[in-house]
Amino acid sequence: MSSDLPISVKNINELLKYIKENDIENVDCNFTDLRGKLQHTAQHSTTVDKDLLEEGIFFDGSSIAGWKTINESDMNLKFDIGKVCYDSFAAQPTIKIFCDVYEPG
Q: What does pTM read for this prediction?
């Protein structure tokens, strides 16, 4: 059995409704680095709102091996709500959302 059970949502409002109705505690934001290694950062569901899902999450790209130097390290994770799944093996109710990485601006 797969740990990733797909969730079908059409827009941000449906995703927020799913999070609330299913008592999701954590949102795991997944992306791959340039070497193909899966990376992630997690957000407590109380921090996930329409603005966050539209604007994305800023992170330090220099913390990923071989990616960015410290002076050009600002990066942005943008959510792909077409790639959402429920993680049935997580200790707390968790969904994973796969993200695309952008340079801000």
A: 0.85
